[in-house]
UniProtKB/TrEMBL annotation:
Residues 13-37, 499-535 are annotated as: Disordered. GO terms for cellular component: proteasome regulatory particle, lid subcomplex. Belongs to the proteasome subunit S3 family. One of its GO terms (molecular function) is enzyme regulator activity. Keywords: Proteasome. GO terms for biological process: regulation of protein catabolic process; ubiquitin-dependent protein catabolic process. Acts as a regulatory subunit of the 26 proteasome which is involved in the ATP-dependent degradation of ubiquitinated proteins. It comes from the Eukaryota. This is PREDICTED: 26S proteasome. Residues 503-528 have a biased composition (Basic and acidic residues). Component of the 19S regulatory particle (RP/PA700) lid subcomplex of the 26S proteasome. The 26S proteasome is composed of a core protease (CP), known as the 20S proteasome, capped at one or both ends by the 19S regulatory particle (RP/PA700). The RP/PA700 complex is composed of at least 17 different subunits in two subcomplexes, the base and the lid, which form the portions proximal and distal to the 20S proteolytic core, respectively. Interacts with UCH1 and UCH2. It comes from Prunus dulcis (Almond). PROSITE patterns: PCI. SUPFAM superfamilies: Winged helix' DNA-binding domain.
């Protein structure tokens, strides 16, 4: 009798042996190495083609074997390809990226690089190529940043895109301004503005806004801003008609700067009040607008609005814009002093601003003490700085605040003091100091700055004794103000919960309309059935 377990075990051994024999007798057919490499290369090529189609501006390594980083010309060519992709796909964000990358390469631009790029981007011998090449100096042949491999394979397009043409103008203009060749920069900027007027493409708006800025800067550096004011107004009108909001924003700031440069504050306010308002597209332009608005409000004695605009401009400004933030803080300090406030010490100790704000720190100290003589000495000591900052006229206004602060300290210290001593302590430098002191004290009493009375017979200033403030109605008024604020806040919160903002302006979609009509029909049917039952 055969054991079943032994039978199955011997059968499995035979099958395993046959399987081993089949493996040894029939080896797998080897794949040629060349065929595998061809398949791999074809697959890599297909993948590369797909990536080339998806990515508009690929990063191609430099042809120079010795250099580890791409050359400046190579980076400019990548930016040109990015501009071409943006022009065909009409994506403005790629134009913004191209301008940002150009600012990184700004310090590396040379004549040889610009000449090679103009040969690459524009048709050699064309009018634009000849004009831009004429602006470049000819005595910089030793600075060769162009490798021979890339220069030998340049391919110039027969019909250059308008975006590439305007970008070439921008590149040459930036280089001329950095090289302090202001006359050539003015000529280049004027030619670029004349070309932009004939182009109405949304992909050029970003490049045009940068050209507007450098156009105004080139004339400002030669102190000829008045010459382009009419042209800037014309450009602002064109940008408004084309609905170029970024151009309107930039040109409005340039016009405000133009007016404020010549102290034409009334014209600047008229332009600002009548210019179209829209949501800001550039944080830098919005910061500039707030700064110019704060300066206009300061001159117009609207110190509260000016303080808000200047502080907001300083907060929104980029950290790298140190000079702009310093100017905002200087004007904000003066405005706060004119409002009767004393800025905190931390304002003057901000990183990188200690030296620039030192004159304003000493000025603030003089106003806080109320010493008119110290205030006069500081104003004379830093007169050149105040004149360059255009805050000298505002500092003249501070004289009245210094006198009022000193008078308040005197009224607290003395219950009764003669007007002669008041004039001496205030250090009034007028021909009749007693009469001036009397008028100053009378005005301070009328304004409520001090709580005192004038004794004209004896020539005294009698201060009233400071009583218990809780015996007056001032705590009740302050408490009532806080209660009213809390109640208004509560009512606004309840109203916002009950009525969502702009709920009446929301358009009803087709699906919601269909659901609402269906619910209304079901409700009407249900009401009709109930009426039938009752009948």
């Amino acid at each position: 009798m055969v054991n079943l377990s032994d039978f199955f075990l011997s059968k499995n051994r035979k099958s395993d042996a046959g399987r081993k024999r089949s493996k040894t007798l029939v080896p797998p057919s080897p794949i040629p190495i060349s065929t595998g490499l061809q398949r791999k290369s074809s697959l890599f090529k297909m993948t590369q083609d797909v990536e080339m189609k998806e990515v508009p501006a690929p990063s191609i390594p430099s042809n120079s074997a010795s250099s580890t980083s791409p050359s400046t010309l190579h980076n400019l060519k990548e930016i040109a390809s990015l501009l071409e992709t943006a022009a065909y796909s009409r994506e403005v964000r790629r134009i913004v990226r191209a301008v940002r990358l150009t600012m990184v390469l700004r310090r590396k631009l040379k004549v040889s690089v610009l000449s090679a790029f103009l040969n690459f981007a524009l048709s050699p011998g064309s009018e634009v190529h000849s004009r831009l090449s004429s602006y470049l100096p000819k005595d910089d042949e030793h600075d060769m940043d162009v490798d021979t491999a890339t220069s030998a394979t340049q391919v110039s397009s027969k019909h250059a895109l308008p975006e590439l043409e305007i970008y070439s103008y921008l590149l040459v203009l930036i280089f001329l301004i950095d090289q302090k060749k202001y006359n050539e920069a003015k000529a280049c900027a004027s030619a670029s503005i004349a070309r932009i007027k004939n182009l109405n493409r949304r992909t050029i708006d970003v490049l045009a806004s940068r050209l507007y800025f450098y156009y105004s800067l080139s004339y400002e550096l030669t102190d000829d801003l008045a010459e382009i004011r009419g042209n800037l107004l014309n450009l602002h009108r064109i940008a408004t008609l084309r609905h170029d909001e970024l151009g309107q924003e930039t040109l409005l700031n340039l016009l405000l700067r133009n007016y404020l440069h010549y102290n034409l504050y009334d014209q600047a306010e008229k332009l600002r009040s009548k210019a179209p308002r829209f949501e800001a597209h550039s944080n830098q332009q919005f910061c500039r607008y707030l700064f110019y608005l704060g300066k206009i409000r300061t001159i117009q004695l609207e110190y509260t609005d000016a303080k808000e605009s200047l502080l907001q401009a300083a907060r929104k400004a980029p950290i790298a814009a140190l000079g702009f933030r310093i100017q905002c803080n200087k004007w904000a300090i003066i405005v706060r002093l004119l409002l009767g406030e004393i800025p905190e010490r931390t304002v003057f100790m901000q990183k990188g601003m200690e030296k620039a704000l030192r004159p304003y720190f000493e000025l603030t100290n003089a106003v806080r003490i109320g010493d008119l003589e110290l205030f006069r000495n500081i104003a004379e000591k830093f007169a050149n700085i105040f004149n360059s900052d255009r805050t000298h006229n505002l500092i003249v206004r501070l004289r009245h605040n210094v006198i009022r602060t000193g008078l308040r300290n005197i009224s607290i210290s003395y219950s009764r003091i003669s007007l002669v001593d008041v004039a001496k302590k205030l250090r009034l430098d007028s021909p009749n100091p007693v009469a001036d002191a009397e008028s100053i004290v009378a005005k301070a009493i009328r304004d409520g700055a001090i709580d005192a009375t004038l004794d004209h017979t004896n020539g005294w200033m009698v201060s009233k004794e400071t009583g218990d403030i809780y015996s007056t109605n001032e705590p009740q008024a302050a408490f009532d103000t806080r209660i009213a604020f809390c109640l208004n806040l509560h009512n606004d919160a309840v109203r916002a919960l009950r009525f969502p903002p702009n709920s009446h302006k929301e358009k009803e979609s087709a699906e919601k309309r269909r659901e609402r009509q269906q619910q209304e029909q079901e409700l009407a049917k249900h009401i009709a059935e109930e009426d039938d039952d009752e009948f």
